[in-house]
UniProtKB/TrEMBL annotation:
Domain named NAD(P)-binding: residues: 7-194
Protein name per its UniProtKB record: Putative NADH-flavin reductase
Lineage, opening ranks: Bacteria, Bacillati, Actinomycetota, Actinomycetes, Propionibacteriales
Pfam families named in the record: NAD_binding_10 (PF13460)
Organism annotation: Microlunatus parietis
Alphabetized InterPro entries for the sequence: NAD(P)-bd_dom, NAD(P)-bd_dom_sf
Length: 206
């Protein structure tokens, strides 16, 4: 498939690019600064564009079969929602339907999965702006009219890619509230060929 990755130089986005290439996909990596991408591959195209500007994003989506959004800004708010809204507009212009968007466990109806610390201290206080940003991001995706999947990973670790994790669990599941960035990338790429995930927002955790 031809896959465009938005947020390609982020901690998850880099791994999405690498793993997508390993899986045989052709990848267009969108970044503000092309010098931040060291990977060289015959199936990799690097496009320098502002992820908040649909005018700049639209050419990067030409010929894409799917778009993976892996935007992040730490504890800051604004980039995830604004960037995703710009991507949605660019997808409409380019005629691309499939959108896979990384959000966070705890957003929307997944909040009951969180423990007291994450619900009230992290997302309630320390990461309040980031949490609100994800809420706006998810609302934009749901209202987009596209063929979307929202992926809600738990807290990131720097562990290896295992392929051994829980996803789409209910509130009775016993989860660690942790997941490696490599396994997040693994799951995001897996949704490219998974039609059963359309219009769903699965959680992701060990």
């Amino acid at each position: 498939m031809n896959v465009t990755v938005i947020g390609a130089t982020g901690t998850v986005g880099r791994l999405v690019v690498e793993q997508a290439l390993d899986a045989g996909h052709a990848v267009t990596a969108v970044t503000r600064d092309h010098s931040k991408i060291d990977t060289r591959h015959e199936r990799l195209t690097v496009v320098e564009a502002d992820p908040l500007d649909p005018d700049q994003l639209t050419p990067a989506l030409a010929g894409a079969d799917a778009v993976i959004v892996a935007l992040g800004a730490g504890a800051k708010g604004g980039v995830r929602a604004a960037g995703t809204i710009a991507v949605i507009e660019a997808m409409r212009r380019a005629g691309v339907r499939r959108l896979i968007c990384q959000s966070t466990l705890g957003a929307g109806d997944s909040r009951p999965h969180l423990n007291f610390w994450w619900r009230h201290v992290m997302f309630g206080l320390l990461l309040r702006k980031a949490y609100a940003d994800h809420e706006l991001q998810e609302a934009a995706v749901r209202d987009s009219g596209l063929d979307w999947t929202i992926v809600r990973p738990a807290a990131f670790t720097d562990g290896p890619r295992t392929g051994n994790y829980q996803h789409g669990f209910d509130t009775r599941a016993s989860i660690t509230l942790k997941i490696s960035r490599a396994d997040v990338a693994d799951y995001l790429i897996g949704r490219l060929t998974d039609e059963s995930s359309l219009h769903k927002a699965p959680g992701l955790s060990y």
